[in-house]
Amino acid sequence: MSQFAINLIFVIGSFTLYTGIAIWARARSTREFYIAGGNVHPTVNGMATAADWLSAASFISVAGLISVGYVNSSFIMGWTGGYVLLATLLAPYLRRFGTYTVPDFVGKRYVSRSARVVAVVCLIVISLTYVIGQMTGAGVAFARFLEVSSDVGLIISACVVFAYAVLGGMKGVTYTQVAQYVVLILAFTTPAIYLSLMMTGHFLPQSGLFGTHAESGLPLLQKLDEVVRDLGFRDYTADVSNKWNMFLFTLTLMVGTAGLPHIIIRFFTVPDIRDARRSAGWALVFIALFYTTVPALAGMSRLNLLETVYPHGTTQPALAYDERPDWFENWEKTGLLRWDDKNGDGRIQFYNDANADFAAGTAAERGWAGNELTVNNDILVLALPEIANMPMWVIGLMAAGGVAAALSTASGLLLAISSAVSHDLLKNTLMPNLSDEREMLFARLSMVGAIVIATWLGLNPPGFAAQTVALAFGMAAATLFPTITLGIFVKRINSKGAIAGMLAGAVTTVGYIFMYLGWFFIPGTNNFPNTPEFWVLGISPLSVGVIGAVVNFTVAALVSLATETPSQAVQDMVRRVRYPTPAPVATAGATR
Amino acid sequence: MATEINERDEAYWRHNVRLIVFCLSVWALVSYGFGMLLRPLLMGISVGGADIGFWFAQQGSILTFVALVFFYAMQMNALDQKFGMEE
Q1: Which of A26, A58, A312, A339 has its CA 20 to 30 A from that of B28?
Q2: Does residue A117 belong to the interface with chain B, where contact is any CB pair within 8 Å?
């Protein structure tokens, strides 16, 4: 059977499974549509949260990012550490409060339509930026594995999401996400286990990374350091001199993670506060399984690639182009690998020619005229099954896994967007008399609208689509996270403070990003070049979210102190969220 | 509103806040401390071909996060039971 046929079987098989779940998990009430009826088992929700979280980019690109070396550990710590904040500062209280959406909490806690609408706008900016990357990611996964154009792949994916998200709402999304997690984690760990066994003899990639490199008998990381050093790159494990930005960037990713609405709403689906706490733990277990595999895969793939190019060691001549392996040839066709014989010796010299000392020294002595191999980092994951000679079904599984990662995150985001539109904008702002049946209809229509818009934007990605990390994480850190935590932990914060805080946080973050990356990301409209010497206090625009969060906290506190104390009803509502004894006035007394 | 209930509530909340402060201190120590800012000081301790700071940045911090979240959940769930908190 051809590889194409195998990939097709895997992808069609997984799609059939998702559609089957969609038919089984139809939503019959708004409660089912928004929060899956509120009776999802904490472990099941943990698994769904992990699928919600692990995106197309995590699946295809993060290992490549991490393979650069220690400095990019920010991504691994940031995208897991946020769950500690979520588990201790947000999820349990929000579950106890018992709302359907994130703006719903903001609107009720601050008793303000304006606060609710500001929260909806922030949510839409965050989630829409994020979802475009998922739609294009689904298209890319299709194009890589299934010989269709990425546009066709994107439209097919949108149709599948349409089936289970419109029919099932959160209920359909939850159970398909569970299936998608299983597919994606098998697809990601199977090749990593193969590679780890091949290179270190360890079954677990996590222990293989800190194990011994079978071929040289040296510790794997030591061997990797030596090999990259021999080629003029920085040591893989080398420390970074400027920790300031690494610190801010990691903190922005963590705080942003905790403030992402599509993750927060997952915790509304479990039965009670105790389950919300447990569920956060399970979510992190399933996420950690992925994110501890990533650095192992990154280190081993990088070493493996360099060993392929220098089969007899870095001091010996590089691989002759004519002797390159089949996978190398295959990936050259996609443009992800490019060879340019600069010194005309027919061999593939791969080294760091940006390192001037190395270029003038070793490289010149060996007659090298520049780096000859351009590698797109995605190749570390995508080409892995072929590099490690894995059976054909592993490639099929990876095709299904990449698509699953994209779809699961896309559907979570689309749900966050559509429920904010139907529940917060329509039901709670514009049409307060909407009946449950009518609201359900509007919820489905909002989902259709969100899918159509996301698909269109995926086909015609605007400039900001590439800025998921800066815009989505920065905004989530600077707007929703502070406003929600203050709402729970500080009774004195009132609606004026919350609104002023959100706006100040958003303006600081987005304004700072635009100053360096261009206004609305239009090239050439930036005020300053995006280089460290122009950054205020050395803060990179990617790390500014946490500064926006500090601005939000400060402004919210100052404005609240200068204006009225929240009413007794609001204070009782906060009591009810915090304390074991039910407060005399329940949330019912203070709607809107 | 009876003051007696208030005191009990306050005790519960203080306990919760203390627990959060503890969890977030450990959270910051393993990631920003051991994995990042204190790494140069810990260079002498090696773990499988690298230093312990590198291990914390790439693996140790994540494992600690998982343990922290379950620790917090178990402590709070036990506290809820002690205080008879019902949904």
Answers
A1: A58
A2: no
C-alpha–C-alpha distance, residues A419 and A443, integer Å: 6
Closest CA to A153 of A170, A140, A164, A163: A140
Cβ contacts below 8 Å, chain A against chain B, sum to: 142
Contact B32 A251 (CB under 8 A): yes
pLDDT in tens, B56-74: 999 999 999 999 999 999 9
Give the closest-approach CA distance of B19 to chain A in angstroms: 9
The owner of tokens 């939503």 is A27
Pair of tokens at residue A477: 């850190």
User: Are A77 and A202 a contacting pair, CB within 8 Å?
Assistant: no
| Model pLDDT, residue A588 | 39
Q: What is the per-residue pLDDT across A47-59, written as a single tens digit (0 to 9) for each?
A: 999 999 998 888 8
CA B52 to CA A237: how far, in whole Å?
11
pLDDT for position A581 = 59
What pLDDT is recorded for position A585?
35
Confidence grade of residue A531 (pLDDT, cut at 50, 70, 90)? confident
The residue ranking higher by pLDDT, A228 or A334, is A228
Short-list A317, A290, A352, CA closest to A55: A290
Phi, psi angles (nearest 5°) of residue A504 = -65, -40
Structure tokens at A302: 């990088």
The whole-angstrom distance between A203's CA and the closest CA on chain B is 16
Tokens of A480: 């929703």
If you average pLDDT over residues A550-563, what whole number do you get? 96
Q: Chain B partners of A221 at a C-beta cutoff of 8 Å? A: 48-50, 54
- In angstroms, what separates the C-alpha of B67 from chain A's closest C-alpha? 8
Residues from chain B that touch A246, judged by Cβ atoms under 8 A, are 36
pLDDT in tens, A288-341: 999 999 999 999 999 999 998 998 888 888 898 988 888 888 888 878 888 998
Tens of pLDDT, residue by residue over A73-88, are 999 999 999 999 999 9
* A101, two tokens: 């959406």
Q: What percent of chain A has pLDDT over 90?
A: 46
Q: What is the mean pLDDT of residues A460-484?
A: 85
User: In chain B, what are the domain boundaries?
Assistant: 10-82
When CB atoms are compared, the residue of B36, B58, B85 closest to A76 is B58
Most B CBs within 10 Å, among A74, A77, A245, A254, to test the B interface: A77
pLDDT computed for residue A580 by the predictor? 67
pLDDT in tens, B20-57: 999 999 999 999 999 999 999 988 888 888 899 999 99
CB contact under 8 A, A580 and B1: no
Q: What is the CA radius of gyration of chain A?
A: 25
Q: How confident is the model at residue B1 (pLDDT cuts 50, 70, 90)?
A: very low
Chain B residue whose CA is closest to A296: B58
The token pair that represents B47 in the structure block: 């773990």
Distances (CA, A) of A14 to A401, A408, A463: 9, 12, 32
- Using an 8 Å CB-CB cutoff, list chain B residues near A284: 65-66, 69
Contact at CB, B49 and A277, closer than 8 angstroms:
no
Chain B interface disruption, residue of A581, A585, A587, most B CBs within 10 A: A581
By three-state DSSP, how is residue A339 classified? strand
Burial class (CB in 10 A: 0-12, 13-18, 19+), A3: middle
Domains along chain A with CATH numbers:
3-302+388-590 (1.20.1730.10)
Contact A85, A300 (CB under 8 A): no
Residue A344's region, left for phi above 0, alpha for psi from -120 to 50, else beta, is left
For A255, the enclosing helix (H) or strand (E) is helix A243-258
